[in-house]
Design brief:
The complex is a heterodimer of chains A (499) and B (312). Chain A has 499 residues and is of the alpha/beta class. Chain A is built from 17 helices and 22 strands. Chain A has helices at 49-56, 79-84, 102-106, 120-133, 149-162, 179-194, 206-212, 235-243, 297-304, 327-332, 342-346, 353-358, 374-387, 404-417, 434-449, 461-467, 490-497; strands spanning 9-20, 23-34, 38-42, 64-69, 72-73, 87-90, 113-114, 117-118, 167-171, 198-202, 215-220, 223-229, 261-270, 274-282, 286-290, 312-317, 320-322, 335-338, 422-426, 453-458, 470-475, 478-484. Chain A has a 6-stranded mixed β-sheet with strand order 6-9-10-3-11-12, with helices on both faces. A 6-stranded mixed β-sheet of chain A has the order 18-19-20-15-21-22, with helices on both faces. A 4-stranded antiparallel β-sheet of chain A has the order 2-1-4-5, with helices on one face. In chain A, strand 19 (422-426), helix 15 (434-449) and strand 20 (453-458) form a beta-alpha-beta unit. Chain A starts with 8 loop residues before the first strand and ends with a helix. By secondary structure, chain B is an all-alpha fold. Chain B has one domain (34-309): ABC transporter involved in vitamin B12 uptake, BtuC, CATH 1.10.3470. Helices cover 75% and strands 1% of the residues of chain B. Chain B has helices at residues 2-29, 36-61, 69-82, 92-116, 120-139, 149-156, 164-182, 184-194, 196-201, 206-231, 243-253, 265-284, 289-309; strands at 158-159, 162-163. A two-stranded antiparallel ribbon of chain B has the order 1-2. In chain B, strand 1 and strand 2 form a beta hairpin. The radius of gyration of chain B is 20 Å and the shape is globular. The chains are: A alpha/beta (499), B mainly alpha (312). Chain A binds chain B through residues 19, 21, 305, 307, 326-328, 330-331, 337, 339, 344-351, 355, 359-360, 362-363, 366, 369-372, 414, 418, and chain B through 1, 4-5, 8, 182-185, 187-188, 190-191, 194-195, 197-205, 261-262, 311.
Chain lengths: 499, 312
């Protein structure tokens, strides 16, 4: 072991514990981070990664244990205090002011001023210099909301570094950006590393963990499991440590059944978003859509669901032309959509597991006057929740208390209860851990075997190639190429989606 | 851990506990407080605010707000009263006129909010002014008086010794509770208020839910207008001022969040009763009505501060 010299370790966390009502989120966890190190923190959802980082960022307070900064014990009071101590966090859900300019965002809370009056010139010139330092071609005067997600992320990193942060925490920074943008992000991280910043990097993506990290720490069920050099562990060993069991294979065996055509989309067009998209989907088939973020893939699948409807083109279900102007009409025609962002569009986070599970199929449990039969509802919800192995203490638990993977299972459960014939999936495994991913892959496969037709958008090439019978490549709002399973080739698919 | 659970319990039932403490306190301070006549009095006084507050609960769970309540009460009161002169029409006519007036105002609120995507605050602020003006235009600024005995019984009569407004209030509580917690419609109200996008993607036609909820709130305002005009035996275009704020206060004290998605009729009723008991108790203690306003404000603040302190 060529562990970095202990004296260079700027951060040491020792036997840190934290509990929430009913859950021990962190159980005597250890972690250290050194100057000039990228330390990957991995683990399944619910393993405690985010809780640990939120304690470091001052959002939560620890129950017990020690945090040492440069050898000194510190008690992090709040987010401002964390920043003063040189700990900055770039959140998975970006927190910024979309209506303010990039410069105003970078200097939010510490604007250059004299006697309380803003010094605008200084604000923009300083922001400009910072952005240039990072070789970013972003105008500091443009509104934050106009930037792409990856640009916003980079601005947040610039902001963090401009606070003289010695420790930078990144929570799944690549979950919503394209691989090009991710490459650029990694370059910037390398540069920060050379400058001596300690970077803690949370991710679910094995490839990037191995690509950029120096050391890896694994958490499981709130416990510290492993810390070691990235070069000295294999991917399989790492997955085993994460899940605590052997993952025989991530993707189930796919035996394609070719049924009759269930869905036909003809020349579907939404102005300036996607053009002339045609495809067909057979019974029991899994059809993938590959494409970059911004290629129109999400908008296309949402338009099939009537949210909002397309401007032109036809949708045929079982050979009959249908008019889908709203999600309600899509559902009536046998569609279901698992949206890209479960928190924004998939769930009512204020509701319980039961509430969310049965929301789309309530009328099935209701009699005259729309009166819900509580027993039938609970029975059906409990059945489908067990089928999908939703891990929740009980059905009345608030959905926001569940881990991401379990929340996603509830979104799927909601739609299985509605018994659709055509299931539209948009990034069905985004931001969830490898164990839950594998379960969702098994489920998708099983549903297809049982005769459901599935249209799936994904950014993960392995996922598309592992699950689909065919893949359609999207580029700039158009279908650029189609691949059948026997002809899947990662490089060809990638080149078909690249601009 | 134990402490946290105790705290959670306290925050969930905190309002109820506060209410019980208030009752014990009042009964100790004033011997007249626990007498049946006084309790009936409290219930009758709270019934109008209560009817309105049930509607407001629906609106606020939907993440909306209805500022037009007080003015709609006045418009419904004068229109109902104008059909309630002795010997003119059977009782059903003024009652329907009042309810339909309320329903129509509520429908317009909901329709424009849903279809034109106008902020509920702005839409109902406009309706507040319009309905008040319409009530003044309709009556030329004078109260409508000389109402039939049958009409006056709605607000002044008794059934089995219980004031009729109280019975109406109890029926509305039951209907409101049933609709919110037992029906598909109620679920859809929570879903729309909790996350509109997710609700739409789950096949809920949120526009329809919004229109219905404001219409229900309007009908209940109309009903409150009928009960109020009947109780004071006159339909005044100046009546009902400030009722929207009392209703919002009751809903907020009852733990419904202004951001929508959560709340219950039960909480609202406790909120209504807290305001009612406090008004009554302060009356009995000869506290001036000016001071009563100050105390009411403080209680609303306390309720919200307590709510904020509860752990997530």
């Amino acid at each position: 072991m060529n562990n970095p010299d202990n004296t260079s370790c700027i951060l040491e966390i020792q036997r840190l514990s934290k509990s929430f009502p009913g859950v021990l989120a962190l159980d005597e966890v250890n972690l250290e981070a050194c100057r000039g190190e990228i330390h990957a923190l991995i683990g399944e959802n619910g393993a405690g990664k985010s809780t640990l980082m939120k304690i470091l960022a001052g959002i939560y307070q620890k129950d017990s244990g020690q945090i040492l900064l440069k050898g000194q014990q510190v008690e992090i009071q709040n987010e401002r205090h964390a920043l003063q101590l040189g700990i900055a966090m770039v959140h998975q859900e970006l927190n910024n002011f979309p209506e303010m300019t990039v410069a105003e965002n970078i200097f939010a809370g510490r604007e250059p001023s004299k006697w309380g009056i803003l010094k605008k010139d200084a604000l923009y010139s300083r922001a400009g210099i910072l952005l240039q330092d990072f070789h970013l071609k972003i105008d500091p005067r443009v509104k934050m909301g106009k930037l792409s997600i990856s640009e916003m992320q980079l601005v947040e990193i610039v902001k963090a570094v401009s606070c003289n942060a010695g420790i930078l925490i990144l929570d799944e920074p690549t979950s919503a950006i394209s691989s090009n943008d991710a490459d650029f992000l990694f370059e910037i991280l390398q540069r920060l590393k050379v400058q001596g910043v300690a970077i803690i990097y949370i991710s679910h993506k094995m490839e990037e963990v191995f690509r950029i990290s120096d050391r890896i720490t694994v958490l499981r069920d709130g416990k510290w499991i492993f810390t070691g050099n990235s070069a000295e562990i294999t991917r399989d060993e790492l997955i085993r440590k994460m899940v605590g069991r052997e993952l025989k294979e991530l993707f189930p065996e796919r035996t394609a059944i070719q049924g009759e055509t269930v869905l036909e989309v003809k020349n579907l067009t939404r102005k300036n978003v996607f053009t002339d998209v045609s495809l067909f989907l057979r019974k029991g088939e899994v059809l993938g859509i590959a494409g970059l973020v911004g290629s129109g893939r999400t908008e296309f699948i949402e338009s099939v669901f009537g949210f909002p409807p397309a401007d032109e083109g036809d949708i045929l279900v079982m050979g009959k032309r249908v008019h889908i102007n709203s999600p309600r009409e899509a559902i009536n025609n046998g569609f279901a959509l698992v949206p890209e962002d479960r928190k924004l569009a998939g769930l009512n986070l204020l509701g319980s597991v039961l509430f969310n599970t049965t929301l789309a199929a309530l009328s099935r449990f209701a009699g005259i006057g729309g009166i819900i039969h509580g027993k039938e509802e609970k029975l059906a919800a409990g059945f489908v929740a067990r089928q999908l192995q939703v891990k929740s203490p009980d059905m009345n638990q608030l959905i926001s208390n569940l881990s991401g993977g379990n929340q996603q299972k509830v979104v799927l459960a909601k739609w299985l209860l509605a018994q659709p014939a055509i299931l539209l999936l948009d990034e069905p495994t985004r931001g969830i851990d490898i164990g839950a991913k594998s379960e969702i892959y098994q489920l998708i496969n099983k549903l297809a075997m049982e005769g459901m037709s599935i249209l799936m958008v994904s950014s993960e090439m392995a996922e598309l190639m592992g699950l689909c019978d065919r893949i359609i490549a999207f580029r700039k709002g158009k279908v650029s190429r189609e691949f059948v399973r026997s002809g899947f080739n990662q490089e060809q698919i990638l080149s078909a989606i690249m601009n | 851990m134990k402490q946290k659970q105790a705290f959670k319990y306290l925050s969930r039932y905190g309002i109820l506990i506060a209410f019980l403490i208030l009752i014990v306190l009042m009964s100790l301070l004033s011997p007249a407080f626990l007498k049946t006549t006084n309790i009936m009095n409290i219930l009758r006084q709270t019934s109008i605010n209560g009817i309105v507050a049930v509607g407001m609960t629906f609106v606020i769970i939907l993440a909306g707000i209805d500022l037009s309540v007080g003015s709609v009460i006045a418009l419904a009161a004068v229109i109902a009263a104008s059909f309630a002169h002795a010997g003119d029409y059977p009782l059903i006519v003024p009652v329907f006129a009042g309810l339909i007036t309320g329903a129509l105002c509520g429908f317009i609120n909901g329709f424009i909010i849903a279809k034109r995507k106008i902020a509920p605050f702005i839409m109902t602020l406009a309706m507040m002014t319009i309905a008040r003006g319409a009530a003044l235009v309709y009556t030329n600024g004078r109260p409508v008086i000389e109402l039939s005995d049958a009409y006056n019984k709605i607000g002044g009569g008794y059934f089995l010794g219980i004031p009729l407004p109280v019975i109406i209030f109890i029926i509305i509580i039951f209907l409101g509770w049933f609709l919110l917690s037992k029906t598909v419609f109620g679920r859809h109200v929570y879903a729309t208020g909790g996350n509109k996008t997710a609700a739409e993607l789950s096949g809920i036609i949120t526009g329809k839910i919004i229109i219905w909820v404001y219409t229900i709130a309007g009908i209940l305002s109309g009903l409150a207008g009928i009960v109020l005009s009947s109780r004071v035996m006159s339909g005044s275009p100046a009546t009902g001022q400030g009722y929207e704020l009392d209703a919002i206060a009751a809903v907020v004290i009852g733990g419904t969040k202004l951001t929508g998605g959560v709340g219950s009729v039960f909480g609202t009723i406790v909120g209504v009763l807290i305001i009612g008991v406090m008004n009554n108790g302060l009356d009995l203690l000869n506290v001036s009505s000016y001071w009563q306003l100050v105390v009411k404000g403080i209680i609303i603040l306390l309720a919200v501060v307590l709510e904020k302190k509860s752990p997530r």
